[in-house]
Write a structure and sequence with these properties.
The protein is of the alpha/beta class. It has 2 domains: 3-41; 48-231, Rossmann fold, CATH 3.40.50. Helix content is 54%, strand content 9%. The longest helix has 34 residues, at 14-47. The chain starts with a helix and ends with a helix. This is Lipolytic protein G-D-S-L family. It comes from Comamonas testosteroni (strain DSM 14576 / KF-1) (Pseudomonas testosteroni). InterPro entries: Ester_Hydrolysis_Enzymes, SGNH_hydro, SGNH_hydro_sf. One of its GO terms (molecular function) is phosphatidylcholine lysophospholipase activity.
């Protein structure tokens, strides 16, 4: 029997076959463990990732000194409570739900947030966009954020009575409908205690649209009770 024949006999021996199966099993176990290790490492990162605020001018410090908006006050509040999360403000003045939808995927990849605060829809109303379109955009963004491992807080808005009673009710109700359907917390009205206050004029800038610096703590006070449980 030559050397090649001897090797072939050894390869076919029961002992060698058993050893080979054992090696394959070990290799598969290591491969699966490695894959699980990657998934396990990614999940905590997503849960403990930053708070991403995707909003419009109400969150983008429009007309305010930098650092005076409610989003920056949120970061200060979290720092005071020793919460290590960072707040990423991706808000843009004039942003619509369509614009937010177009930007969200790249923001999720870049920041890997643990929480997404969605504050959009007001500009849709100002532009007379269909409620159905606004609702669909919100739902798509919420699902995308959830699929990325983030919790979502939806921030609602209301429009002035001059839009008509029917539209006003439908617009405010849309946020509740989305929150109920998607099973997520809702801030019913970001400007509660400001836009609906008897002395509302003192809380707004000269354009009577954007809240001034004095109104920002109240805006944070409206968001904080709904956000805090998500931070734990």
């Amino acid at each position: 029997m030559n050397q090649l024949d001897s090797k072939n006999v050894k390869d076919r021996s029961p002992q060698f076959a058993l050893q080979r199966r054992h090696c394959i099993a070990v290799a598969l176990t290591l491969a699966i463990s490695g894959a699980c290790g990657i998934a396990a490492a990614a999940a905590p990162g997503a849960k403990s990732g930053p708070v991403l605020v995707l909003g419009d001018s109400l969150s983008a410090e429009y007309g305010l000194t930098r650092g005076k908006g409610w989003v920056q006050l949120l970061q200060q509040r979290m720092n005071d409570e020793k919460n290590p999360r960072k707040v990423v403000n991706a808000s843009i003045s004039g942003e619509t739900t369509a614009g937010g939808r177009a930007r969200l995927a790249s923001l999720l990849r870049q920041h890997e947030p643990g929480i997404v605060i969605l504050e959009l829809g007001g500009n849709d109303a100002l532009r007379g966009l269909a409620l159905q379109s606004t609702q669909q955009n919100l739902e798509v963004m919420i699902k995308a954020a959830k699929e990325a491992g983030a919790q979502v807080l939806l921030v609602g808005m209301q429009v002035p009575p001059n839009y008509g009673a029917t539209y006003t009710e439908q617009f405010a109700g849309m946020f509740k409908k989305v929150a109920d359907t998607q099973k997520l917390p809702l801030v019913p009205f970001l400007l509660s205690g400001i836009g609906d206050a008897a002395d509302a004029e003192q809380w707004f800038q000269s354009d009577r649209i954007h809240p001034n610096a004095q109104a920002q703590p109240q805006m944070l006070a409206n968001v904080w009770p709904k956000l805090r449980p998500l931070l734990k």
